Amino acid sequence: MHKQDGKLETIQVGCLIKHTCSQDDGSTHSSVMARAIRHVTCVLRSYLKPSFCSLVAAGMIHCSLLAVAQSGPVASDKTSKTAQQLPPAVAGVAVVDGHLVVAGTTKLFLARGFNTNGVLYPTLYDSILCTQPDVAPGSKNAKWLEAAQAALTAPPLPGHPYNASFKAMIDDWHANSVRIHVSPGALQYEYAHGLSAYTNMVRKVIAQARAAGLIVLIDMQAERYGCTPYINGAMKKLPDIETEHAWAQLLDSALRHDKGIMLGVFNEPSTQKACNAGSFKHPVWKAWATGCGTAPEQGMVTVAKYLRTIAPDNVLEIQGDEAGSTLAALDIPKDMPVNVVYSVHPFHYVIKSNEILSIDMWDQQFGHFEASGHAVMVTAWDEAFKCSNHDSEQTITKYFLENYLPGHSIGMMAYAWDAPYWGAGYLVNSYNYPGNTANYSVVDPNNSACPESGGNTLLQAFQIQASRDWPSRSKELSADRAHFGKTSP
């Protein structure tokens, strides 16, 4: 174990799991589980501290969290049999002094990973919920989503507690986190009808991701691929009481007590679409927080407060208004829960192919907000979604990924691990489809009209970030302009 300036440094330890493994409370697991894990060799990727491993005089290491299954009933769970089977091997996260850090330390956690659609489509209920033609059973989108689901829900590899998808994330792409889209419509349906098959599937995938050492961000994704019922003919764009029911259905005791699970309140809220209020450039933050003023009660802060009552320790992820495009001028409500990271989706990030104009926009949309003392993440991005002002030399894209974001303590979860193979978000060859076998390699360019998808630049940025520590925050925002030898647009 190494310490620098009082901070625990990341190490990698090979260890032989003993017949029994100590837990934080000093108890031991059953002999059945002890036999199941006897002589298993593991690799622990974590911050070494008493709650994970303790060195003994003989030099052996007792691992309590990597490969020991939890057992016993879970209070108020409808589907406790699917509680996490493999406790995680990495520390959780928390927001401290405006930074997302490794829980229990002051070490910055800079997320690097992907969104995944692998459990978004409710295949079990597609004939009931997926009524829009573009996601109906047998449609092109349904076939893609089912292929992505087959890959992400595959059983663990021999000798591993996780499957090939998660292995590729950590080994090939240097990921430390994953954003898993779930269908609030499917969860609401099971909540109302006392069902659990979809919930079970989601929990099992989350368990594999945590066993792989990934921090998991669960995202309530109400857009069309998850078949959440429309409201007045349109997609739901603010969370409400039904969103709370979806969270109640999903969050068993294992998820609520794992600080390695972050909870994304609701994906891409939009007051313009939900309330016919405001605009892309002028969000209505009051409606974003508490809803349109109509029943049922809704809004990002309303549902975040509910989540905090049932999940007191998980980091909450809250996106800005207008499809997560901005945090500009957000005056955080006094009743906003604590332990929150705010997020944006900067698909439109290049302005007139000009470096300084682009940096100005980043500052305005989320950089100044982060610098004012708030934790921020990018939870969806790829280069090809908005290619009208293309970065032909990749100068702006490289600086955005390799310098600006990490220098401002902002992690990146790209879109997507398993996007449609014909679309702009297809970054990784991660699932099989006719004529293709997944090999987890970068797809750049893809089949969009953009000359680059951003995949190669993203992979390079993740490699760099995985090999170094970053400062907690840039000393001066003006350093970004100085990088390009300019001080003004």
Describe the structure.
The chain is an alpha/beta fold. The chain has helices at 31-37, 126-129, 140-152, 164-171, 184-193, 197-211, 241-250, 253-256, 271-275, 285-290, 300-310, 321-324, 355-371, 395-407, 455-466, 478-483; strands at 3-4, 7-8, 11-16, 41-46, 53-55, 61-63, 93-96, 99-102, 112-116, 177-182, 215-220, 261-264, 316-319, 340-344, 376-378, 411-414. It has two domains: 3-68, no CATH class; 93-483, TIM Barrel (Alpha-Beta Barrel). 30% of the residues lie in helices and 14% in strands.
Question: Quick gist of this model?
Answer:
Helices cover 30% and strands 14% of the residues.
Secondary structure: elements and pairs:
Blueprint: E1 3-4, E2 7-8, E3 11-16, H1 31-37, E4 41-46, E5 53-55, E6 61-63, E7 93-96, E8 99-102, E9 112-116, H2 126-129, H3 140-152, H4 164-171, E10 177-182, H5 184-193, H6 197-211, E11 215-220, H7 241-250, H8 253-256, E12 261-264, H9 271-275, H10 285-290, H11 300-310, E13 316-319, H12 321-324, E14 340-344, H13 355-371, E15 376-378, H14 395-407, E16 411-414, H15 455-466, H16 478-483
Parallel strand pairs: 9-10, 9-16, 10-11, 11-12, 12-13, 13-14, 14-15, 15-16
Antiparallel strand pairs: 1-2, 3-4, 5-6, 7-8
Helix pairs in contact: 5-7, 7-11, 14-15
Residue share in helix: 25-40%
Helix/sheet category: alpha/beta
Number of domains: 2
The CATH superfamily of the largest domain is known as Glycosidases
Counted beta strands: 16
Strand arrangement, major sheet: 9-10-11-12-13-14-15-16
> How many alpha or pi helices?
16
Binned strand content: 5-15%
CATH architecture of the largest domain: Alpha-Beta Barrel
What can be said about the biggest beta sheet?
A: 8 strands, parallel, barrel
**What form results from the Cα inertia axes?**
globular
CATH class identity of the largest domain: Alpha Beta
**Rg calculated over all Cα atoms:** 22 Å
Low-confidence parts: 1-89, 471-478
**Average pLDDT over all residues:** 81
Per CATH, what is the topology of the largest domain? TIM Barrel
Distance between the termini: 48 Å
